[in-house]
């Protein structure tokens, strides 16, 4: 964390506020704080996992880091350059260094374009390249993700979900970026295919020294690929640390709840709806811990003061007054059976 | 660590062979409504072209002595009240029908699509302004605009083309903007933005190709509507002026003789029906054929 060298990505106190559609002419429109003071640093070659339920702000985080949205306040610095201060033309050139892989391998590839055009898109957006060079680069990158040259002139509908996600990864790789932001890259895939895509991502990471920001709701996926994990809840990071810190000794009751949900991975429906309610009510409740309505350990102190993200171990941060108490609880895995 | 990678190479990548470039025409020939529609449209275009070099009788020659003749060997479909040959009139009338259709739809398509794409790409007040303007234009029926135009510049083919063309614009604006908005919401547009592409390139490279089939289908339907509108305007005396024949004018002339020789109204009516039906079938067929995911053959 205290590396003297310049970090790859430095995100500082990021706030993203959305204004809801006006419900009444006489009341001010509601607002949602999708990101509420998020700060992270990623060193070159290291990967960060971001976990949290739907509505926790993790996809907003991905879009803001990708400079697809302007944050309300805060800075996103890639290799020392503030992305939101760059002129449009320079931002476009800077995009060479950070690319994105999307969740839905069916929606993220244009059905009317051939694979060669899709994969070459980040290149053609940057510069004029002649056809032969373009095809050579696409062919090289397709081979890296385990596809063949012959696939270049096919259309996306001729591929399976896993193959499509490989194509999406190839598209992200073609500019040789330093950072790839992957928003739920495997959650739309079959479990057997998930492993293949994750293996591929890991191989590429070793081969090119890539950094990932891996957005996921699946802790196992993050554990597999990341050096550090941030748990998000209602636009804040509530716990951050190495995967082994978090998974062996969770220090926030929300992380515990997420861990307990893992074996029953698909039973999270009720939980999510509750999360959505909490977002709506969040704008009014300014004081106290945002997790209070769901926390089994909440007491008067939690209602009065919001906990700040504080250091509880060498590489472990948590935003809970009772972090030590939570860590002392028996392991979640035994509890879940 | 290269094991899963090489294992992955062996995945079923060979299952779907790439479609050859000639696939479109092979599928097209098996698509019944496309073939029928294309045949009817070709028939209409063919008659228009034929009339340029040959007609059974001179279309403008008035021969009062042989007026209102029933079908015979010399006049295949008989003659009208001026003794003009019906077949020749139909052939020459196809010319103005096609001309009006192409130019009017061309006007509507080009400006409508430009405005619609702009509205979808810019959003905000640009979209609001364009949509309200097209609502405004849409509120005037083509016939009313044509009457207003005719009052200013006089009736004629140009007047009807302009009026029909303007009437087509808001329809194309709406169709374009609606379908373009749906494309803008897709993830591959977000991917293009993440690659650094701007609104114009995304519109040209992603949005337009994805809505093109919808536009082509809409254009064939609008072409059919333009033919009907042209016929209606000519029937009202606002479109093609005598002596130049058009199917609408022929209907107009036939109206007064409906009880003496009702067949006079049937011929141009049937010609209009054939053209409209052909265009509609063609549009349906194109919609199916232009979708690369619908390799389905009918």
Automatic annotation (TrEMBL), chain A:
Residues 20-259 form the ABC transporter domain. It is a peripheral membrane protein. It is found in: Cell inner membrane. One of its GO terms (molecular function) is ATP binding. Pfam families: ABC_tran, oligo_HPY. InterPro entries: AAA+_ATPase, ABC_transp_ATP-bind, ABC_transporter-like_ATP-bd, ABC_transporter-like_CS, Oligopep_ABC_C, P-loop_NTPase. Keywords: ATP-binding, Nucleotide-binding, Transport. It comes from the Bacteria. PROSITE patterns: ABC_TRANSPORTER_1, ABC_TRANSPORTER_2. NCBIfam families: oligo_HPY. Involved in beta-(1-->2)glucan export. Transmembrane domains (TMD) form a pore in the inner membrane and the ATP-binding domain (NBD) is responsible for energy generation. PANTHER family: D,D-DIPEPTIDE TRANSPORT ATP-BINDING PROTEIN DDPF-RELATED (PTHR43776:SF7), TRANSPORT ATP-BINDING PROTEIN (PTHR43776). Belongs to the ABC transporter superfamily. This is ABC transporter ATP-binding protein. The lineage of its organism: Bacteria, Pseudomonadati, Pseudomonadota, Alphaproteobacteria, Hyphomicrobiales.
From TrEMBL, chain B:
Residues 94-283 form the ABC transmembrane type-1 domain. The keyword Transmembrane applies. The chain crosses the membrane at residues 34-54, 98-121, 211-237, 257-283. PROSITE patterns: ABC_TM1. It is a multi-pass membrane protein. It holds the Pfam family BPD_transp_1. It is found in: Cell membrane. InterPro entries: BP-dependent_transpt_permease, MetI-like, MetI-like_sf. Its main location: membrane. Keywords: Cell membrane, Membrane, Transmembrane, Transmembrane helix, Transport. The keyword Transmembrane applies. PANTHER family: OLIGOPEPTIDE TRANSPORT SYSTEM PERMEASE PROTEIN APPC, PEPTIDE ABC TRANSPORTER PERMEASE PROTEIN. This is ABC transporter permease.
């Amino acid at each position: 964390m205290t590396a003297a060298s310049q970090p790859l990505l430095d995100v500082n106190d990021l706030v993203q506020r959305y204004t809801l559609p006006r419900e009444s002419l006489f009341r001010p429109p509601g607002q949602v704080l999708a990101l509420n003071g998020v700060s992270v640093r990623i060193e070159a070659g290291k990967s960060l996992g971001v976990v949290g339920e739907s509505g926790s702000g993790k996809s907003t985080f991905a879009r803001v880091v990708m400079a697809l949205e302007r944050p309300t306040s805060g800075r996103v610095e890639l290799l020392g350059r503030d992305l939101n201060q760059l002129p449009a033309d320079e931002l476009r050139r800077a995009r060479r260094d950070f690319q994105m892989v999307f969740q839905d391998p069916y929606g993220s590839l244009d059905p009317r374009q051939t694979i060669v055009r899709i994969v070459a898109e980040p290149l053609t957006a940057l510069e004029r390249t002649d056809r032969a060079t373009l095809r050579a680069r696409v062919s090289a990158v397709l081979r890296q993700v385990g596809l063949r040259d012959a696939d270049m002139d096919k259309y996306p509908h001729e591929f399976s979900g896993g193959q499509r996600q490989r194509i999406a990864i190839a598209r992200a790789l073609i500019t040789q970026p330093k950072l790839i932001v992957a928003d739920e890259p495997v959650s739309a895939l079959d479990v057997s295919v998930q492993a293949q895509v994750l293996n591929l991502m890991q191989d590429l990471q070793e081969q090119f020294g890539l950094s990932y920001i891996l957005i996921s709701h699946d802790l196992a996926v993050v554990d597999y690929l990341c050096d550090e994990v941030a748990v998000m809840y209602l636009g804040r990071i509530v716990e951050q640390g190495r995967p082994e810190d978090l998974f062996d000794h969770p220090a926030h009751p929300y992380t515990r709840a997420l861990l307990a949900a893992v074996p029953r991975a698909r039973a999270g429906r009720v939980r999510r709806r509750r999360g959505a309610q909490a977002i709506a009510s969040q704008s009014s409740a300014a004081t106290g811990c945002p997790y209070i309505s769901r926390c089994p350990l909440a007491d008067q102190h939690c209602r009065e003061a919001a906990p700040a993200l504080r250091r509880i171990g060498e590489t472990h941060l948590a935003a809970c007054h009772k972090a030590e108490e939570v860590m002392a609880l028996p392991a979640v895995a035994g509890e879940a059976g | 660590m290269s094991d899963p990678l090489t294992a992955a190479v062996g995945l079923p990548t060979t299952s779907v062979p790439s479609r050859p470039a000639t696939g479109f025409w092979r599928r097209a020939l098996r698509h019944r409504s496309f073939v029928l529609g294309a045949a009817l449209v070709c028939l209409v275009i063919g008659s228009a072209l034929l009339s340029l070099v040959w007609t059974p009788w001179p279309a403008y020659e008035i021969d009062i002595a042989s007026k209102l003749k029933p079908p015979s060997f010399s006049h295949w479909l008989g003659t009208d009240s001026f003794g003009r040959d019906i077949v020749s009139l139909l052939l020459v009338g196809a010319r103005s029908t096609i001309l009006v259709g192409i130019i009017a739809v061309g006007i509507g398509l080009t400006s409508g699509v430009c405005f619609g794409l702009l509205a979808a790409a810019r959003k905000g007040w640009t979209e609001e302004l364009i949509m309200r303007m097209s609502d405004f234009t849409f509120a005037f029926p083509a016939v009313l605009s044509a009457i207003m135009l005719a009052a200013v510049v006089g009736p004629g083919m140009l007047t009807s083309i302009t009026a029909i063309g303007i009437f087509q614009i808001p329809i194309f604006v709406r169709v374009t903007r609606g379908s373009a908005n749906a494309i803008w919401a897709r993830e591959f547009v977000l991917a293009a933005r993440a690659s650094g592409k701007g609104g114009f390139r995304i519109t040209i490279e992603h949005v337009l190709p994805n809505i093109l089939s919808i536009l082509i289908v809409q254009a064939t339907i609008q072409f059919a509507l333009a033919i009907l509108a042209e016929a209606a305007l000519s029937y009202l005396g606002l479109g093609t002026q005598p002596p130049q024949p058009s199917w609408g004018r022929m209907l107009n002339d036939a109206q007064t003789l409906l009880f003496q020789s009702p067949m006079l109204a049937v011929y141009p009516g049937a010609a209009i029906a054939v053209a409209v039906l052909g265009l509609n079938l063609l549009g349906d067929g194109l919609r199916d054929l232009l979708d690369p995911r619908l390799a389905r053959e009918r």
